[in-house]
Amino acid sequence: MKVVILGAGPAGLAAALALTKHGHTPIVLEMSGTVGGMCRTVSYNDYLFDIGGHRFFTKFDEVQALWEDILGDDLLLRPRLSRIFYQGKFFDYPLRASNALRNLGLRESARCVLSYGRARLRGQRGSEDNFEEWVSNRFGYRLFDIFFRSYTEKVWGIPTHEIGADWAAQRIKNMELSTAIIGALRRPLGRVVGEQSDVASLIEEFHYPRRGPGMMYDAMADRIREAGGEIRFHTRVTGLEFTDGAITAVSAESEEGTTTLKADHVMSSIPLTSLVKGMNPPSEVAAAVDALTYRNLLTVNLIVDAAELFPDNWIYVHEPALQLGRIQNYKNWSPEMVPDSTKTSLGLEYFCSSDEPLWKMEDTALIEMATAELKATGLVGRAPVIDGCVVRAPRAYPVYNRGYEEHLATLVDFVAKHTNLHPMGRYGMFKYNNSDHSILTALLSVENILGADHKVWDVNTETEYHEIRS
User: Fold this and answer.
1) Cβ neighbourhood burial of 203 (10 Å; 0-12, 13-18, 19+)
2) pLDDT greater than 50 at residue 200
3) Architecture of the domain spanning 294-398
């Protein structure tokens, strides 16, 4: 059986590895020169940087077993610690009552709880077809305005009332910042009418490869090659050939020229919009492609001349005055990410679209801007930033704007007409999948090729936040 896999990120590699275990030798086509996609590890002057910070946490046993099989003792168990920076103060996350009260003040804390109580008593307001209404109805407008609006609009680049409610339902229900706030504040301020008595808590530890996530995917790639599979780098897919609703071949370009690969099945983890656009779709499908957009991730990686700065793995920056969205402290993910124990490496995350000035800014200007914003948080004190680099990750996040569901459904229906085409992963399904979701869609897709009938599109549609301790 000839299987061609598009993309060598977590989903593409997991699919290829699973196929080799069944005696098949897939061919993986990757446009870049490395594996891992957004989950690769970047090396700069021997410092290792993650692109956003990728925790290895899952509730899927088959994914956990795969991770442990690949890395064994190199898969470290790390403590989780994160905070929120807002109005010059740091909030513990999950919140602690004393910390929240001190930072918000008793009056503001009481207002938040009263706002929450009113929202719970009055029930649904509005159609709840957008993020702002969904959150405000459940947790009160004041909590929404303080702790959700700024960071969310940084990530997506659009007002919260233009973001689809799916995003909130998928990522917030039962456990997110709002629940932590209510859990922290209800004890000193009294119970709110209608409030549930059990508040879920975030996981307190997660797995992480000793030398960053790329270590996982490099090892997977090695196993694929050892089993006879093939990974072709710097190869761009240019077209698909069809016969009676099935794909028969994949055309691709590389430095060696154009090639055509016969295929019994095609598994795709490249952006769904790019895939469909290259299939010469009818006008209504092409219009749906144009209606779906992505958000880019830009990380400014800084090396600071200080052995220790702060204990967090990462810090969310909710301060509206800063463009900065999140700060990663890689030494606290794994000490081996930093070759010099007297230094600390940080990853500063910015979210933008391709037409924004931030995305087009020169690296030196970005490093200067990020250094100034970092100092504005007070996290580094007088410690100097001595070096840095910039990594750009285009189309990192599918944008869940209002109405995207209809456009996505059009693409899903179009792809489903091609019986041996299997979209998977975050990009491939235009779905905010974490790496474990992406890997699971790959494993289930392989099983479908082998005769199963899994509903792969149902992965990551549960509305329970997947990082709650159960």
Assistant:
1) middle
2) no
3) Alpha-Beta Complex (3.90)
